[in-house]
Design goal:
Uracil-DNA Glycosylase, subunit E, 10 helices, about 15% strand, binds uracil
Length: about 240
């Protein structure tokens, strides 16, 4: 995405874009202001061998999965991508058409906006891990069914256990309701910090929804600010 489009997205979200006077990284300023280039990132240490084995096993199991009917219609599974030792775990709903074709999460237009939302709080996709409730695309992008969510549950649990994130962002209603095991509407789930087995969970609008709704973009920025504040508090 070019810089002009990126700025357009951020402005549409109501985010004031600050252009830094110097190119010095400003990690502590990330939550308060938007640095279009983002802070410098230190390389993560590589995972121990056993963890790598567990990841490889899990990834292989997901690729071969036939636990629900979605295996008949998918092109390929979408395991998730990013830093396997990330502090931030982002969980969406399910792959769409582009993700099904490319085997990566959030690569369509909603994915581009998600990348920009991360950038606005000083994060890159390489720093976080992005996964979905479902690893396979529901045909026509319909909502996931209960039996599909149940069949996929174990994979996400194991991803969470391996990553041990410090914060989880639930992206959109379906991810939030599934993770928090509730029927509450998104409006009641946003704006507060939930707890999933000791990990704080912040609920954010789904970028696909934000692309359609101008009105909620300011609130989307408030969600991201809550996420940063929560991360700083829980990081220890
Ligand atoms: N929407 C999601 O919830 N997940 C993706 O990976 C893509 C779009």
């Amino acid at each position: 995405m070019d810089k002009a489009t990126r700025l357009h997205y951020l402005e549409a979200m109501g985010i004031d874009v600050w252009i830094p006077r110097t190119s010095m990284p400003l990690p502590e300023a990330a939550a308060e202001s938007v640095d279009a280039e983002g802070p410098a990132i230190e390389a993560e240490p590589s995972a121990p061998a056993t963890e790598t084995d567990d990841w490889n096993l899990l990834q292989a199991e997901v690729s071969a999965c036939r636990k629900c009917g979605l295996c008949e219609t998918r092109k390929q599974t979408v395991f998730g991508s990013g830093n396997k030792q990330a502090d931030w775990l982002l969980i969406g709903e399910a792959p769409g058409q582009s993700e099904d074709q490319q085997g990566q999460p959030f690569v369509g237009s909603a994915g581009q906006l998600l990348t920009e939302m991360l950038r606005a709080i000083g994060l890159t996709r390489e720093e976080v891990f992005i996964a979905n409730i479902l690893k396979c695309r529901p045909p026509g992008n319909r909502d996931p069914k209960a039996d599909e969510i149940a069949a996929c549950h174990d994979y996400l649990q194991r991803q969470r256990a391996l990553i041990q994130p410090r914060i989880i962002l639930a992206i959109g209603r379906i991810a939030a309701q599934t993770l928090l095991n509730t029927d509450a509407p998104l409006s009641r789930l946003r704006g507060k910090v939930h707890n999933l087995e000791g990990t704080p969970v912040v609920v954010i609008y789904h970028p696909a929804y934000l692309l359609r709704s101008l009105i909620d973009k300011r609130k989307a920025w408030m969600d991201l600010q809550l996420a940063i504040k929560t991360y700083k508090e829980f990081k220890g």
